[in-house]
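Hi C.,

You asked whether I'd gotten around to modeling the 271-residue construct. I have! Everything is below, sequence then structure, no commentary in between.
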Amino acid sequence: MDNRPIGVFDSGLGGLTAVKPLHRILPHENIIYFGDTGRVPYGSRGADVIRQYAEQDARFLLSHDVKFVLAACGTVSTVATHLADLLPVPYANVLQPTALAAVRATKNRRIGVIGTAATIRSGAFEREIHRIDPTMQVTSQACPLFVPLVESGFIDPNDSVPIEVARRYLAPILAQGVDTLILGCTHYPILKRIIGPLVGDDVILIDSGRESARHCAALLAKNGLLSDRETEGEERFFVSDRTDDFTSVAGIFLGNEATSLEAELVQIEDY
């Protein structure tokens, strides 16, 4: 047993879509969350910059003596693949559990992947899916406007702006007849109410935040790192910018659970 906290990070607040199910699955665990809101989005950056940011984010979490690090960020998961080798604690990301869930879900063997420009450019989801099952047909589409839309609160399913953006992004994927769609960035599940009606009920949406939370819980149990605390765990939130409106933005990801949450400011460049 290990009562140290779990560390979770993302380029912004999208990783809270992993924190929410993680807390539900493991209610007695403490969680340290860092959202790099001052440098979001990562998906438009070059690979070297993304790797540098990921290392800084992980070092910050390690400064809080975390027992496990979860990169709840599709871009980091697919670009900063070296991170696991640098950390002194177990590490997980969204790539493997999300790809596996999609392979298990598809019936017609046609999988769509949407992600940031860096994630799609890396080809990591295609490689991981084909590693699991080489017969799968994968169609990928970069959706660079999705993260800024979510972080800015453009998530209303009746708002024509995100609807039209999503329609244009999804058209090439739907044209390939996919029956399963990977939401390859943890911001994207917030747009389910927009994406879902556009792809239709016959397309299964794979939530990278939820799948990575399940995977994280399984690895903690496997490695004997679960807490033996009987009381409910605590969560601490850190950001690199915008502490004043954290509650309202976090509410997009956590719902009513965010009503009294506060975030602390981090000078992430110091790590």
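If it helps when you're writing up: Residues 47-62 form the longest helix (16 residues).

Thanks,
B.
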